[in-house]
Description:
Number of strands: 13
Distance between the termini: 68 Å
Largest sheet: 9 strands, mixed
Order of helices and strands: HEEHEHEEEEEEEEEE
Amino acid sequence: MPVVPRRRSHWVxxxxxxxxxALVVAALVRAFVAQAFYIPSGSMEQTLEKNDWILxxxxxxxxxxxxxxxxxxxxxxxxxxxxxLQSTNDFRQGLEFIGVAPKSTEGDLVKRVIGVGGDHVTCCxxxxxxNVNGQPLDENYLYPGNAPSDAPAGCDGQFDVEVPVGYLWxxxxxxxxxxxxxxxRGDLRFVPEDNVRGRAVLVVWPAxxxxxxxxxxxxxxxx
Length: 223
């Protein structure tokens, strides 16, 4: 029995339905499961290099607390960035929307969690180490040649803070160029947990940088 070709209008309708469903699924995955982000700066070197793509898991936002040592992407608490940065490239925004291109962290920030709510965080002890609740951190992930207390001009290399409940104290691995919690004043030094978009779990691009982003062992006794 001969096959009767479908009318063109039916084919177009099916294509539209498939595209819409795919976009909805992609949007749900980005909103609730995982999203790719692009790293535009060197503040987390060498853990994350400039121009890396990372995969950020959002599942922990709903099923678990934020742990010491995690690398997180978060929304600017206010005043950390000179101005809200937005992509002006409509083509790139379209690629980001459908998930082909990673979202840039230019409008967000990526740092390592050093202190969580209730922690006492200080820098530095007699050996030049950051301490959390009296426990010294031997931070072997820091950028080569950086001391724990290195900081950009105008930021506090030495500090003694109590982290409010529901907030985080975060720092970059490339200490001498990272404008992080040490560079803010008052309550703006701390990142609300609700501002966290997700945990970085994997460097996905370039292929030569592929690596899992686990929690360094120095934080085991704190989590």
